[in-house]
Amino acid sequence: MTKPKVFEKPTGVKDYLPHAVTKLRRIERSVLECMRLWGYEQIMTPTIEYYDTVGAASATSDRKLFKLLNQRGTTIVLRPDMTTPIARVVGSLLKDEPFPIRLSYHGNVFRAFEEEGGREAEFYQTGVELVGDSSPEADAEVIALAIASLKAAGVPSFKIAMGHVGFLNGLFEETLPGLTSEQEALKACLLQRDHVGYRDFIRKLSLDANWQRELEGILRLRGGEEVCAQALELSANAGAQAAIKHLCAVWDVLAAYGIQEHVLIDLTMIGDFSYYTGMTFEGYASHLGFPVCSGGRYDNLLAQFGRPAHATGFALKTTRILEVVEEVADERDRVLVVYDPSQRRSALADADRRRALGQAVVTEVFSSDNAQELAAARLSALTGSFTYRGTLYHALAEIGTDKGELA
Amino acid sequence: MTDNGVLKVAMPKGRIYKQASKLFRQAGLPIPEDFDDSRRLIIPVPEANMEFIMAKPVDVPTYVEYGVADIGIVGKDVLMEENKDVYELLDLGIAKCRMSVIGLPDWKPAIHPRVATKYPSVASQYFREQGQQVEVIKLNGSIELAPLIGLADRIVDMVETGQTLKENGLVEMETLFQVTSRLIANRVSYRLKNIAIQELCDRLGVAISARV
C-alpha cells in the first residue's frame, strides 16, 4: 500500500462532526434513559480484552476479530460486542450479585477491516442484557424494551422479526435423525439466506415426500400468531414443540404489552447457532437496507465465564439509526458576549451567569480587527439569530463596547 | 425500501435481461417489450407497483445488499464471486451455463501454475479446496486468450455452448458448478415488503414450472 495522504484514516472508521454528534448523543441519552426506566443500570467495560477469553467466547467469527499484540506477545482483541465483556463481569465482579441482573450499555465495538469499503470497522451499540431469567416474560421484556428504545431513538417505522433456534434444531432432528452433517448443511444454507441452495439440498436427500414438503414449507413460515399454530402441526419433536410453545408464550406477553403489531414471526430467521440458544430477533427500519437491532437468548455464554446462567438481550446499531432518525430542530441557546477589554471581569461574570442558566456562551474581545464584522452581526441580531465568523448565534450581548464606534 | 410500497427491482443489462423480462411477462407482470432496448436507467412500471433499475450485472448484488433495490436478478456466478449478504430466493432457471476450468488439450501441471479469470474469488476458493496453490490473474474479458498466448496455463470461466472454446482449440477440464439466474432480496425488504416479494416469487415460480 502507498503511504496514506495526511487526511486519510483507516478503512471503515468514521469522524463524527458536531451536528452528527448532537444527534448521536440525543439518541444515546433517550435510549439509555428509556432503559433506565425499565430498571436497567448502565455499565462500562474496557475497549480491549484478551483474545483467549472474550475473543474466544464472542459470537463474532475469528476472522472478523480485530486483533493486536501487547508488549509480551499476548493477543488482544478490540471488543467485538458488549455482551461478552458483560458476561465476563457478571461471572467475576458481580458473581455474588443475585439474579436477575439487568444491565445496559452504550459503547463502540470493532470488526477487523473488510477488504471492501462500506462495512464499518468501528460502530456504536446501545443495548441491554437480562441475566439469570429463562422465562418467556424475560424474552418478551427485551423485545418490548427494544421496541421502546427504537421509539425513544426516534426511528419512524420499524418491524421486529422473531424466531427460535430450537424449532429448526428439533425439526431437522426429526426429519434427518442422526444425520448431523446434513443438518449442519441445511442450517448453513438458511444462515447464508440461500433458499435456492436449501431447496436443492433437500431434493438431493431423497426424503419421504411429506418430509420434503414440510422442510420446504418452513421457508414460508412467516407472519403473525397463526405461524405458531402451523408450526405446532409441523413437527412432533419435543424440542421443536417446546420451542414453539415458548414462542407462543412470548407472543402472549407481547400482546399484553400491546405491541404485537410491531412483531412478526419468522421461523427461518436464525442467528448463529453456536451462540444463540432460544428466541432470536432482528429489527428493521424502512429506508435502511441493514437491520437496526438484533438480539436473542444465549444460555451457554455465561458458563464460559464460570457462572452458568440463562441470559437474553439485544443491541441497537446506534450509528445506523443515526441515518434514519429525523434531524431535530437545533434548540441550542447560543449567545455571543462581546466586551471591551476594560470590562473583562464583568463580561466573564455575565457569561458565567448565562451558562448557569443553560445558555451556550462564547466570549469575544472587541477590537478594531472585528469592529466591522460585529457591526454587521449587530444589525442582523436585531431581527433574530445571526452568524459571526461562521457560527450561528441566537443573541448578542455587549458589555462596555461603544456601540457608536461599532456601528 | 420506500414506504409507498413500490418494489424496486435491480435488473441486469445485457444477456440475462431479455430472458428475465420474458419470464416476468409470462408471470403476468406487465413489462412492455420496448424497455429491452431503452437507454433509460430507471423505469417505473406503476401498473405492477414496481420500478426497474437497469444495472451492470456484477453490481446487482451490491444494490440489493445496500437496500437501494429491494430485489434483483443476477447470475449465480456473480453471487458466488461477490459474496454479498442477500437472500437468494428463487432459481429462475434462465441463462443456463456452467463455471468451468479450461485449458489447452495437452495441458500438463505447470511448475508455477497460473489461472486467468474474471472470477478471482471463485477461482482461488476452488483451487484451494483442491489443494492446489495457483496464482490467480484477474482479467476483464477475452479470458480464452490467456492460455493461447501463454499468460496462464488454465482459465476459469463461464461456458454456455462451448463454441468459443472449440473455435480456439480449448477444452473444458472440470466443472465447478452450474449457473442460472437467481432472484435475490435485501434483508430488510424481505421482511418489510414480505407480501409483495412472496407474491412475486409465487408468480415467477408458476411461470418457471410451466416452462419445464
CATH topology of the largest domain in chain A: BirA Bifunctional Protein, domain 2
Name of the CATH first level of the largest domain in chain B = Alpha Beta
Low-confidence stretches of chain A: none
**Tally of distinct domains of chain A:** 2
Question: How much helix, percentage-wise, in residues of chain A?
Answer: 25-40%
- The overall strand count of chain B is 11
Instruction: Give the C-alpha Rg of chain B.
Output: 19 Å
Please give the share of residues in helix of chain B.
Answer: 25-40%
Which architecture of the largest domain in chain A would the CATH scheme give at its second level?
A: 2-Layer Sandwich
Q: What is the beta-strand fraction of chain A? A: 15-25%
Output the structural class of chain B: alpha/beta
**What's the number of structural domains of chain B?**
2
What fraction of residues of chain B sit in β-strands? 25-35%
- Strand order of the biggest β-sheet of chain B: 2-3-1-4-11-5
Largest interface: A-B, 25 and 23 residues
* Order of neighbouring strands in the sheet with most strands of chain A: 1-5-6-12-11-10-7-9-8
CATH architecture label of the largest domain in chain B: 3-Layer(aba) Sandwich
Structural features:
heterodimer, A: 407 residues, alpha+beta, BirA Bifunctional Protein, domain 2, Rossmann fold, 2 domains, 9-stranded mixed β-sheet, 17 strands, B: 212 residues, alpha/beta, D-Maltodextrin-Binding Protein, domain 2, 5-stranded mixed β-sheet, 8 helices, 11 strands, 33% helix, elongated
Structural commentary:
The complex is a heterodimer of chains A (407) and B (212). Chain A is of the alpha+beta class. Chain A has two domains: 18-176 and 223-324, Bira Bifunctional Protein, Domain 2 (BirA Bifunctional Protein, domain 2), CATH 3.30.930; 334-406, Rossmann fold (3-Layer(aba) Sandwich). In chain A, 39% of the residues lie in helices and 22% in strands. Chain A has helices at residues 18-37, 51-57, 83-91, 136-153, 165-175, 180-191, 195-204, 209-217, 226-234, 238-257, 318-324, 344-356, 371-381, 403-406, and strands at residues 41-42, 48-50, 66-69, 75-78, 101-110, 122-131, 158-164, 222-223, 263-266, 279-285, 293-297, 311-317, 334-339, 360-365, 386-388, 391-393, 395-399. A nine-stranded mixed β-sheet of chain A has the order 1-5-6-12-11-10-7-9-8, sandwiched between helices. Chain A has a three-stranded antiparallel β-sheet with strand order 2-4-3. Chain A has a three-stranded parallel β-sheet with strand order 14-13-17, with helices on both faces. The longest helix of chain A is centred in the N-terminal third of the chain and has 20 residues, at 18-37. Chain B folds into two domains: 7-95 and 180-211, D-Maltodextrin-Binding Protein, domain 2; 97-178, Periplasmic binding protein-like II (D-Maltodextrin-Binding Protein, domain 2), CATH 3.40.190.10. Helix content of chain B is 33%, strand content 29%. Chain B has eight helices and eleven strands. Chain B has helices spanning 15-26, 60-66, 76-82, 120-129, 145-149, 163-167, 187-192, 194-211, and strands at 7-12, 42-45, 50-55, 71-75, 87-91, 97-103, 114-117, 135-138, 154-159, 171-179, 181-185. The longest helix of chain B is centred in the last third of the chain and has 18 residues, at 194-211.
